[in-house]
């Protein structure tokens, strides 16, 4: 079954510069300069994250020209607080965009959530039938529960929503392959204490991923952990290139997680041996880490800023705590009308 990207969209609030963040005391000068992140999109409204996904989905659905009745499944991926307890953000997205009665399901695969949801949608369409799937992501990493510069040192978290409309009939790009692999031996990196730990944090202490990571890396060794992280990513990439019948040298663009530059080099650029110019870095450094939405946001930017040419191939890579890694090859079939600088 061939699968296509029929529409992509993102909704990003205004960005705050790193210099402004330093002036405000949101982060220190060293952290800002090491990350080389220029700015971070921050929602001051506040907007319910799922509403950000709705705005992105409307763009993607219009681009796809897909009537609500033809969407067979809605998958909404997220990492953090969606604004209401025991509430289906996926159903909110469905009600506000489609109003149809297909399954609407939430996906939590941490920062691999967007690509994992595309992976699940592909399986759903091939297994249960259907011509289109709507995949959205949205998060708002606001204080006091989250410290976007300090909760996960080396990664700066941003607010925003994204959407992808997948189609079995056609689109501006073909999803030539998509692979997801896991290595649960690394799950302890993001866990505080034993599995029976204190549970979700209920106080106003911001999320702290640095402490469990420091303990985990101290126990295993930084080099060994990095090797294991890179090995997982390489397994996904090798399988995705093979599935698409593509060589690494035939890739024109690399869409990578919106990490700070130091972490991006350590985890990706150094062993891919690719210059940052051939990646989404020039865009991602102006946005920050959107959690599950990095890949869709960067694909939207590339596709709607005239950077993608028919015949080009894009290698899309994602990683999530757990760990799980996704990698896919996207073949560009036609240009989308430019709507972004
Ligand atoms: C929790 C949000 C989420 O899912 N993030 C994606 C998973 N995290 C990652 O892929 C980062 C993996 N890399 C690392 O943690 C670090 O680079 C290493 C490998 C632990 C080395 O530490 P560093 O020197 O970068 O501080």
From TrEMBL:
SUPFAM superfamilies: Thiolase-like. Residues 107-171 form the Beta-ketoacyl-[acyl-carrier-protein] synthase III N-terminal domain. Keywords: Acyltransferase, Transferase. Pfam families: ACP_syn_III (PF08545), ACP_syn_III_C (PF08541). InterPro entries: ACP_syn_III_C, ACP_syn_III_N, Thiolase-like. One of its GO terms (biological process) is fatty acid biosynthetic process. Residues 190-210 are annotated as: Disordered. GO terms for molecular function: 3-oxoacyl-[acyl-carrier-protein] synthase activity. Coiled coil: none annotated. Residues 241-331 form the Beta-ketoacyl-[acyl-carrier-protein] synthase III C-terminal domain. The keyword Magnesium does not apply. This is 3-oxoacyl-[acyl-carrier-protein] synthase 3. The lineage of its organism: Bacteria, Bacillati, Actinomycetota, Actinomycetes, Micromonosporales.
